[in-house]
Design goal:
The chain has about 180 residues and is of the alpha/beta class. Helices cover about 50% and strands about 5% of the residues.
């Protein structure tokens, strides 16, 4: 099964985060996370989204840890100094290496040049490309992901198509691929 490290910046958007985590829940990939990544996500959300209740952000982190305990990589900091990528993201590559990740999912593509990743055999994908690849490889399962995501939204409720319309802002290639595939 594909093992993918999810960088903090892909977890900022609730819609993208939910799609990724529901896909992981269905067994389409194994996520890798670190406490530092989760803390960075929470800190950034609290700073950039003062309209959100900080307690709800902390609860999201707690729920992620509870639902995906096997995703947590804690013993990676000793590898960080050996990483040659962007200094501020060396902990991310170190967690990917220690967690056995085959791919890092991030918006910060320039922070992980091939020369830094290739010795470890780690690919790099944006969330859009990653989700599009999941859709192309597992369309029925990803349709179920979107149905479950829509069912979880109750205030206001949404259909899978409406979920895709929301996702289109962040992950347009994935949303378009899913919308082109027919009724959900």
């Amino acid at each position: 099964m594909l093992i993918a490290l999810l960088d903090a910046n892909v977890l900022w958007s609730a819609a993208v985060r939910d799609t990724l985590l529901l896909a992981a829940e269905l067994g389409l990939f194994l996520p890798v996370l670190s406490r530092q990544i989760l803390e960075e996500m929470a800190r950034s959300l609290k700073l950039r989204r003062p309209d959100l209740d900080p307690a709800r952000i902390d609860r999201t982190v707690e729920l992620m840890l509870r639902h995906f305990p096997e995703a947590l990589v804690d013993d990676h900091e000793d590898l960080s100094p050996a990483m040659t990528n962007d200094e501020g993201n060396r902990h991310v590559l170190a967690a990917a290496v220690r967690g056995g990740a085959e791919v890092i999912v991030t918006w910060n593509v320039s922070h992980f040049p091939p020369a830094a990743r290739n010795p470890y055999g780690i690919d790099l994908q944006t969330p859009d490309g990653f989700l599009e690849n999941l859709w192309l490889g597992h369309p029925d399962e990803m349709a179920l992901v979107l149905q479950r995501q829509a069912q979880h939204l109750i205030n206001p409720s949404k259909t899978p198509r409406q979920v895709l319309e929301t996702l289109k802002r962040s992950v347009p290639r994935f949303a378009e691929a899913a919308l082109r595939s027919g009724p959900l």
